[in-house]
């Protein structure tokens, strides 16, 4: 691990915690990050409204991952997989007129896709 190559003086328990976090992230395929929550509702029409908002969002932002969640009794629509709050804030600023009540939430996000670049000589 990268932190093992650095010369940092710290309690050995910190290294143990870092190793545990890395193992959990690798096992679950997720990591701590941020998403933008654009809808939250409960009630009779909440599911239909959540689907409508997700569909509307995808029609104009097809390149942004969108998630429809159900946490009883609420339906939630979250978008994006951001590693930092500032990345999420950039999207929030572009959506402020469409989704004025959108806010940034901490969430488990999918690992970023790696781009394989091959060079041609």
Task: Chart the SSEs and their pairings.
Blueprint: H1 2-5, H2 12-28, E1 30-42, H3 46-60, E2 66-71, E3 74-82, H4 85-95, E4 103-110
Antiparallel strand pairs: 1-3, 1-4, 2-3
CATH topology of the largest domain: Alpha-Beta Plaits
Biggest sheet character: 4 strands, antiparallel
Structural class: alpha+beta
Summed over residues and divided by their number, the pLDDT gives a mean of: 84
Total number of β-strand segments? 4
Instruction: Provide the CATH superfamily of the largest domain.
Output: Sporulation related repeat
Give the CA-based shape: elongated
Q: Order the strands across the largest sheet as they lie in space.
A: 2-3-1-4
First-residue to last-residue Cα separation: 32 Å
Number of domains: 2
Helix and strand pattern: HHEHEEHE
CATH class of the largest domain equals Alpha Beta
Structure, explained:
It is a single chain. This protein is an alpha+beta fold. It has two domains: about 1-30, no CATH class; about 30-110, Alpha-Beta Plaits (2-Layer Sandwich). It contains four helices and four strands. Strands 2-3-1-4 form a four-stranded antiparallel beta sheet. The longest helix is centred in the first third of the chain and has 17 residues, at about 10-30. The model has no long low-confidence stretch (mean pLDDT about 85).
Features:
single chain; 121 residues; alpha+beta; Alpha-Beta Plaits; 2 domains; four-stranded antiparallel sheet
């Amino acid at each position: 691990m990268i932190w093992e190559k650095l010369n940092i003086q710290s309690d050995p328990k910190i290294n143990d915690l870092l190793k545990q976090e890395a193992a959990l992230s690798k096992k679950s395929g997720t990591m701590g990050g941020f998403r933008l929550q654009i809808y939250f509702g409960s009630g009779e029409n909440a599911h239909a409204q959540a689907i409508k908002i997700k569909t509307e969002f995808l029609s104009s932002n097809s390149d942004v991952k969108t998630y429809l969640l159900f946490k009883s009794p609420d339906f939630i629509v979250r978008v994006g997989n951001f590693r930092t709050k500032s990345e999420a804030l950039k999207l929030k600023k572009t959506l402020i007129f469409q989704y004025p009540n959108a806010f940034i939430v901490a969430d488990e996000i999918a690992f970023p896709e790696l781009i394989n670049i091959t060079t041609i000589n």
